C-alpha cells in the first residue's frame, strides 16, 4: 500500500466529539503515514476504514457521528486501525422510554417554483414514465406473460411512441402459500398496490391462471371490477383480466393473442397521454442504499439527505426505509417524529421487526455483509448511522407498514427489510415515482417500473463504473464538491429524469432486477 | 348443465369400500341423471365432483381411496353432491405410533434392457440435456447476467450446435438475508446443489457481485476452488468465478465481455460432449402435480405411479415430494418405508414442517386452492390421497431434506413444500434430470434446466391446451386407455425425451418459470 505521488493523506472526522476518523484516500494509507496534525498511522489502513484519533483503552467507547458505534476489545493506541475484529458491538437500543418529538424542528422554509413534466393520473398521482404494466396473480403464468411482453415490445410498442415501456409484474407468490396466515397480508397488499403505481397510468391489466389462491378479485382494489378481456375497454377503476384456464383459450397462441389484443387497447389509451408541467411537490422519491461502505455515510448519503430536505421543502414526498439500518438509531427517529402518533408507529414497526427476526432466530447483526466490513463498516450500529442521514433533517411526518400505499406527503419512514430488491418492491407499492440508490461497493441495481438514479460514494467507483453510476458523490471526500453542491445536483437531476429529459444509466442499459416480495408467512 | 347427446353418464369409484364416486363426464351431470345401477342424481354435479353412493347421516365418514376424506356436515342422501361446503375435514394424523414397514413389499421384478442416450458426467451422473449454466450468488447481478445470457444465445450459441441452451441461475437470495439463521442452510445448499445438476456437465460458472453475504466460496462445493475468470480453463471441480466489483471491470461492457469470454471457454468444452447409450437406471425423475382436480388422483397420478414403478424396476431414481400433500397419508408412507431409518426420516420431515407452518400460524389446510375445490377436491386429505398415488407401489428407499442432493437410487421422498416452483427448484437441487408434472386445472409450467413432461388429467384440457400438454391421461376416465397403457406410454416418452429424440411442449415453446428458493429464514 503506497500513497500515490502528489496525493496528500486525508482523514475524515464526522463530528468533533468523535475519537475515530476514516481514511479518504483511494487505496488506503500505508503504515507510518504522518498526518498534518501530527498523528502517525501505526499500521496500514484501507480506504474507508477507521483510525483511532486518541489512545483507546480496552472497553472504551468508539464514537462516530457522535454516537457510540462500538467498544474497543483491546487497547487501541492513537493511529491504530479500528475495525470489527478489535471492537465489540453495542447492545440494541430498547424500545422503551424513547425521546418523542424532542428534536422537533421548525418546518423547513418552503422551496417554490420547481417543476417537472409528468403524467397526471385520474387518482391525483403523477407518473414520471408512461408504462403499460401487466400484473400477474401467480407465478404459473410467468412464462406466458414473458412471451407476450417480448412480442408486445417487438410488434406493438413501436407503433405507440408515447408509451415508454411494457412491463410484466412477475413474482413467485400467489399459490403454494398460506394466504390466510397473518403474514400473508403483506405480499397480497404489496401486489395490489404495485399495480396502482403512478407510472402505470391507472390502466393495469391482469393475467391470471384461474385456479390460484390469489384470485384476481383478491388482488384488485376494493371497488375495482375485474372484467374479462374482450368485453370492451375497461372504464376508470376497472381492470382487464385474462384468465388462461378460461374455455376461450385453445392452445398457447390463443393466450398470447388475447393478451396482445388487450394490451393493444391499453397502449392506445396510454399513447394519448402527454406530459404536463407539475409541481415538484408531486415527486414521490424512495431513497435506499446498497453495497454500503464507510463513505456511504460521509458522501452519498448526506448528499441524498440534503436533497431530501430540498424535496420536503418543495412539498414532495420522500420515503426512507430499511428497518435493520435504522433500528440502532430509533431514538434519533422518534426524536424527529412530527407527532406522538408518528413516534408510536415507528416503535410499532421496530417491535414487529424485532419479533419477526427473533422468530427466525436472527437479529439485526445479520444485516452487515462481508462487503460492508471490507468497506470499513464494523457493525450495524455504524452502518445505521450512515444510513439514516439519507433522511435529511426534517420532521418525520408519517410511517408506512410494508406493502401499504402512501396517503400523505412529506418525509415518510416506509418500514421495509433492508434487502435491496424487497425494499425497492415495497417502495414501488407505496407509490414511488423516482428512486435514488447510493452504493459504495457498487451494484448494477435497476428497476423496470421507475427510473433509478444511482449515486457512487467514491470517485474511484464512479470512474470505473462510468456507465452504471449517475452521480459521483466521492467528490465530497476529495474536497472537489460540498454536500450542498451534490445535493442540489441530485435535486436538479431528479427533475430532469422525472421529466424524461434525461435517462438514468439503468434505463439506458435496460438493467432491471426482478421484483422480490416480502412474505413473512409460510409456504405450503 | 346437460349431458351431450350420445354420451353415457360415468361415475368413477376408486375402491369398493368407498361411499362416494366422482362424475367423469365433461361438463358434469344434470340433476335427475339416472345411472345404470339405479342411482339418480338429486342435484347437478360438476365434473370431478363427488356423488354420495349411499345415504350418509350427519357425522358419517366420507370414504374415498378407502380412506376417510371427510365427515358429512349434514344428512347427504344417496345421489347428493358431496363437496367442501357439506363436509368437515378429519383432524391431522399424529406423528406418534405410526406403522413402520408393515406394508413392506417384495422388491418389484427387475425391468431390464431399457436405455436412453445421455451425457455422462465425471461425477457419475448423467445429463438429459447439455446446458451451460451461469450460477449467481446474489440478485444484484441479475440484470447483468440476463444481458450476457441474451448475447451468448444470440452471438455464441449458434456456433456450438451440441450445446442445447445457456441458462442463468437467477434468484432473490444472497444478501439482505439472515445467512446464519438456522433456516438459511436450506437456500444455501439449494443453490450449491443446483449448480451441480447433471444437465450442466460439471462446468458451472459463477457470477458474483463481490460484497454479498453469499460469497462464492460459500456457494461452491467443499473442495471446489473458485478461480477468477481469465486465469485459464477451470479443471475438474474448479469453478470460474466472475466478480463484478473486481478492479478489472471498467464499465458495463467489460463485465459482459468477461462473462462472454468465460462462457465461450465453457461452450467449447460442452460442445465436445456426445450422447452415449445409458441404462434407464440413470434417469432421475422428479414427479409433481399442480393445479390438481379430482381427476388427478384417478387418471394422471395413478399413471405416473405406474410409470414410477417401472422406473424403480429399471433401477432408476424417482422422487416424489410436497409435504402438505402427503401429511395426511403419512401412515401409508411409513408403512412402505424400506427400513426403520426411512420411516424415522419421514416422520422427522413431517414434524419439521408441522412446526414450520405452526410458527407462521398456518396448517396443512392452507394447501388447497380455490381451483382444487372447484375441481372437486374438498380438502387436503382428499387431495393428499390423490397426490400420493404418484409414488407408485414400491418401498420407499430414502428421504431427502429440502435442498439436499441425492445419494442413492430407488424411490425417494424428497421433502419440499407443495408450491410448484419451490418443489421444482428443490428437485433440481436434488439432481433431477427429468420432470413429470400432472395437472387437472391446467398450468403452462416449464423449467429451463430440465425437460418437463406435462400430463393432463382430463381429455378436455388436453384437447384445449393441445400444444401445452404432452400426455392425455383423461383417456383413462373415458375407458379409452388403462392406467397401465398410459403408464407405459409415459415411460417410453421419458426415454425419448431424455435422449433428446423428442422435445416437450414447454421446450418447443421455450416456456420457463423462474427458480423459487425455499427460505424458511428471515430477511434483514
Describe what this molecule looks like in 3D.
- The structure is a homodimer of 524-residue chains.
- Chain A is α/β, with parallel strands linked by helices and 524 residues long.
- Chain A has 3 domains: 1-88, Archaeosine Trna-guanine Transglycosylase, Chain: A, domain 4 (Roll), CATH 2.30.130; 131-271, Ribose 5-phosphate Isomerase B, Chain: A (3-Layer(aba) Sandwich), CATH 3.40.1400; 286-509.
- Chain A has 14 helices and 22 strands.
- The first copy, chain A, has helices at 142-156, 185-194, 216-219, 252-271, 296-313, 323-326, 330-335, 340-359, 370-374, 380-388, 420-430, 459-464, 483-498, 505-509; strands at residues 11-12, 20-23, 50-52, 61-64, 67-72, 81-82, 87-88, 115-120, 126-127, 131-136, 165-169, 205-208, 226-228, 239-243, 276-279, 284-289, 317-320, 398-400, 410-414, 434-439, 452-456, 471-472.
- A 7-stranded parallel beta sheet of chain A has the order 18-19-17-16-20-21-22, sandwiched between helices.
- In chain A, helix 2 crosses helix 11, helix 5 (296-313) packs parallel to helix 10 (380-388) and helix 5 crosses helix 13 (483-498).
- Chain A is globular and about 80 Å long.
- The model of chain A is unreliable at 232-236 (pLDDT under 50).
- The interface between A and B is large, with 84 and 84 residues.
Amino acid at each position: 500500500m503506497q500513497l500515490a505521488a502528489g496525493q496528500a493523506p486525508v482523514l475524515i472526522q464526522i463530528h468533533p466529539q468523535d475519537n475515530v476518523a476514516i481514511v479518504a484516500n483511494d487505496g488506503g494509507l500505508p503504515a507510518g503515514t504522518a498526518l498534518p496534525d501530527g498523528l502517525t498511522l501505526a499500521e496500514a489502513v484501507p480506504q474507508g476504514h477507521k483510525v483511532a484519533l486518541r489512545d483507546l483503552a480496552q472497553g472504551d467507547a468508539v464514537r462516530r457521528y457522535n454516537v457510540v458505534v462500538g467498544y474497543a476489545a483491546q487497547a487501541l493506541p492513537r493511529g491504530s486501525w479500528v475495525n470489527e475484529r478489535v471492537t465489540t458491538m453495542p447492545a440494541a437500543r430498547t424500545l422503551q422510554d424513547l425521546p418523542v418529538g424532542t428534536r422537533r424542528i421548525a418546518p423547513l422554509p418552503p422551496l417554490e417554483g420547481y417543476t417537472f413534466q409528468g403524467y397526471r393520473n385520474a387518482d391525483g398521482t403523477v407518473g414520471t414514465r408512461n408504462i403499460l404494466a401487466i400484473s400477474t396473480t401467480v407465478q404459473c403464468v410467468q412464462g406466458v406473460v414473458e412471451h407476450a411482453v417480448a412480442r408486445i415490445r417487438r410488434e406493438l410498442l413501436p407503433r405507440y411512441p408515447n408509451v415508454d415501456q411494457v412491463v410484466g409484474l412477475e413474482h413467485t407468490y400467489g399459490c403454494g402459500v398460506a394466504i390466510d396466515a397473518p403474514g400473508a397480508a403483506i405480499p397480497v397488499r404489496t401486489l395490489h398496490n404495485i399495480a396502482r403505481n403512478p407510472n402505470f397510468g391507472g390502466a393495469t391489466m391482469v393475467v391470471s391462471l384461474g385456479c390460484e389462491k390469489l384470485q384476481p378479485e383478491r388482488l384488485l382494489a376494493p371497488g375495482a371490477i375485474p372484467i374479462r378481456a374482450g368485453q370492451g375497454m375497461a372504464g376508470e377503476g376497472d381492470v382487464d383480466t385474462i384468465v388462461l384456464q378460461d374455455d376461450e383459450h385453445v392452445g398457447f397462441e390463443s393466450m398470447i393473442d388475447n393478451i396482445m389484443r388487450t394490451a393493444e387497447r391499453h397502449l392506445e389509451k396510454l399513447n394519448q397521454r402527454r406530459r404536463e408541467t407539475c409541481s415538484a411537490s408531486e415527486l414521490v422519491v424512495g431513497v435506499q442504499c446498497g453495497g454500503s461502505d464507510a463513505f456511504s455515510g460521509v458522501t452519498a448519503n448526506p448528499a441524498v439527505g440534503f436533497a431530501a430536505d430540498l424535496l420536503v421543502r418543495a412539498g414532495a414526498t420522500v420515503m426512507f426505509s430499511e428497518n435493520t439500518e435504522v433500528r440502532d438509531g430509533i431514538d434519533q427517529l422518534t426524536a424527529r417524529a412530527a407527532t406522538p402518533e408518528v413516534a408510536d408507529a415507528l416503535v410499532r414497526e421496530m417491535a414487529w421487526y424485532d419479533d419477526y427476526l427473533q422468530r427466525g432466530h436472527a437479529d439485526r447483526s445479520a444485516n452487515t455483509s462481508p462487503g460492508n466490513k471490507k468497506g470499513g463498516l464494523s457493525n450495524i450500529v455504524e452502518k445505521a448511522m450512515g444510513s439514516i442521514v439519507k433522511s435529511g433533517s426534517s420532521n418525520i411526518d408519517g410511517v408506512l407498514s410494508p406493502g401499504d400505499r402512501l396517503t400523505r406527503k412529506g418525509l415518510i419512514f416506509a418500514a421495509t427489510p433492508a434487502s435491496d430488491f424487497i425494499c425497492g418492491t415495497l417502495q414501488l407499492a407505496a407509490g414511488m415515482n423516482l428512486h435514488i440508490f447510493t452504493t459504495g461497493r457498487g451494484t448494477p441495481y435497476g428497476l423496470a417500473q421507475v427510473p433509478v438514479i444511482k449515486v457512487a460514494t467514491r470517485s474511484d467507483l464512479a470512474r470505473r463504473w462510468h456507465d452504471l453510476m449517475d452521480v459521483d458523490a466521492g467528490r465530497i471526500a476529495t474536497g472537489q464538491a460540498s454536500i450542498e453542491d451534490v445535493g442540489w445536483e441530485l435535486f436538479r437531476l431528479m427533475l430532469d429524469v422525472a421529466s424524461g429529459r434525461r435517462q438514468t444509466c439503468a434505463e439506458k442499459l435496460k438493467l432491471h432486477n426482478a421484483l422480490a416480495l416480502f412474505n413473512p408467512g409460510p409456504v405450503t
